[in-house]
TrEMBL record:
Taxonomic placement: Bacteria, Pseudomonadati, Bacteroidota, Flavobacteriia, Flavobacteriales
Organism per entry: Polaribacter haliotis
Domain of life, per lineage: Bacteria
SUPFAM superfamilies for the chain: NTF2-like (SSF54427)
The name this protein goes by in its record: SnoaL-like domain-containing protein
PROSITE patterns per the UniProt record, alphabetical: PROKAR_LIPOPROTEIN
Length: 291
């Protein structure tokens, strides 16, 4: 009888251990699934990075039947994306994502490229049901450090102040409309903490003083920059991206301006300025903007 009781006790202990092992395995599986379930922002970064690594699995992040392309030099759909990859130079493309953030269905990356030449660019991806259905971008040639020693990509990277996202977007929207579009430069001090302003545009030095000096130099050379229409404001926490349309030196231009907001003021700025491709040279009819 004692042996039977002992045998039953051992059996129950083994069963309990098996149940616990299953629970632990389930928990581990859940943890693994949580770790492998990428956010849309992470998918965007992975797709850009795959231009360099050649990881073809990231193609699955693009909707194969519903993908609208707004890079006017690239054909529409997944076929257009594949055509770009087909023309990669010997040694492939280079792509290092420096910043990334997301706003609702939109994910934004700020990247250093060697993409038919050294460039810096912003990419905007729109997601639906976990897949990319639309893409916009804007590039500038990579340049040397600006008068204050900053490059087009260095500076603060970390996304913070998530609870201030809407307030920061509202600040940038007001700045774009008031100063850049309406030209009310007398209101510039409202958006900055004195002359404390880090500038990453390759031609302009730090502070409002650097901005003013650059404007004067352009005026002497007869170069006029106009901002005419704001298309979208996207942001997460301390980072806000503005996409506007205008002209630079008389040419239709797309302006992508990334602002870092600190304590309710614009503290840092990156940008890309790209001439909009003429209709005769476009490979799709989706327009440069049309958000």
């Amino acid at each position: 009888m004692k042996q039977i009781i002992t045998t039953v006790a051992v059996a129950l202990l083994i069963t309990a251990c098996n149940i616990q092992d299953k629970k632990n395995n389930n928990k581990n599986t859940e943890k693994m699934e949580t770790k492998t379930a990428l956010s849309n922002k992470e998918k965007a970064v992975a797709l850009i990075t795959s231009l360099e690594t050649g990881n073809k699995a990231t193609i699955a992040y693009i909707n194969p039947t519903n993908y609208k392309q707004h890079n006017l030099a690239v054909a529409d759909g997944l076929e257009g994306f594949g055509e770009v990859l087909h023309h990669a130079p010997e040694g492939g493309f280079k792509a290092k994502v420096v910043r990334s953030f997301q706003d609702g269905d939109y994910s934004i990356t700020h990247t250093k490229y060697d993409f038919f030449g050294p460039k810096v660019g912003f990419d905007i991806f729109k997601f639906k049901d976990g897949q990319i259905v639309e893409h916009w971008d804007n590039f500038s040639d990579l340049a040397s450090a600006n008068p204050s020693g900053h490059t087009q990509i260095d500076g603060v990277i970390k996304v913070t102040d998530l609870e201030k996202t809407e307030a920061n977007k509202a600040l940038v929207k007001d700045f774009v409309n008031t100063v850049l579009i309406n030209g009310e430069f007398n209101k510039l001090p409202n958006y900055f903490d004195g002359d404390n302003y880090i500038q990453h545009n390759s031609m302009i030095g730090d502070g409002l003083s650097g901005f003013g000096k650059a404007i004067e130099e352009m005026a002497k050379q007869g170069i006029i920059m106009t901002f005419e229409k704001s298309h979208i404001i996207l942001g997460e926490g301390n980072f806000v991206l503005s996409v506007t349309e205008g002209t630079f030196a008389g040419k239709p231009t797309s302006f992508y301006d990334l602002f870092r907001i600190e304590n309710g003021k614009i503290a840092e700025h990156w940008d890309t300025i790209e001439t909009i491709l003429s209709e005769a040279d476009r490979k799709n009819n989706n327009g440069k903007f049309n958000f």
